Amino acid sequence: MPVHWTIDSEAKVFEVTCSGVVQADEIHRMLDVMVGSDALGYRKLFDGSQADTNLGPLDVLHIGVRMRTLHGEGVPLGPLAVVIPADKYPLLSRVLGILASPRRPMRIFTEVDRARRWLNTAAVRRRVPAPQDDVADRANQQSVNC
User: Fold this and answer.
1) Using CA atoms, how far apart are residues 96 and 128, in angstroms rounded to an integer?
2) Global pTM value
3) What is the pLDDT of residues 47-92, one digit of tens each?
4) What phi and psi, each to the nearest 5 degrees, are found at residue 49?
5) Which of 29, 54, 68, 70 has the fewest Cβ atoms within 10 angstroms?
6) In what helix (H) or strand (E) does residue 43 lie, and over which residues does it extend?
7) Structural contact between residues 138 and 107, judged by C-beta atoms closer than 8 angstroms
8) Where are the alpha helices (DSSP H) in the chain?
9) Domain span at residue 56?
10) What is the three-class DSSP state of 140?
11) What does the radius of gyration of the chain's CA atoms come to, in whole angstroms?
């Protein structure tokens, strides 16, 4: 399978590495895992620098629409670094535009090391949303301390 991911719940990082020819169903499976793992708020690194695809424009549009619906579920989205070869930008530009529309840090890179360094900066790490349980606990603590 050309799409591999790791989830580090302690560091709040969801990292995806693609190699070979990536199919639409593999991207949808990865999105299922991200949602099921409550990792939408994590820092995300999507490394497609070693991948290729034969996705058509309609496949790309379906993936983009699905990602856009994830934005509307009221869940805060974490920072995203996308690594793609420069020659794949024309194919993926619409999906990347959809991903950039929510209020969250996002950058596109051609080198994975630069993407990882950016995700690890203090400014980006501060933008990782607090888990919902932590927010509720802080609200309860504040009301008690008032």
Assistant:
1) 20
2) 0.80
3) 999 998 888 888 888 888 888 788 766 778 899 998 988 887 776 7
4) -65, -25
5) 54
6) strand 43-53
7) no
8) 24-36, 57-71, 89-100, 112-119, 122-125, 132-145
9) 3-145
10) helix
11) 16
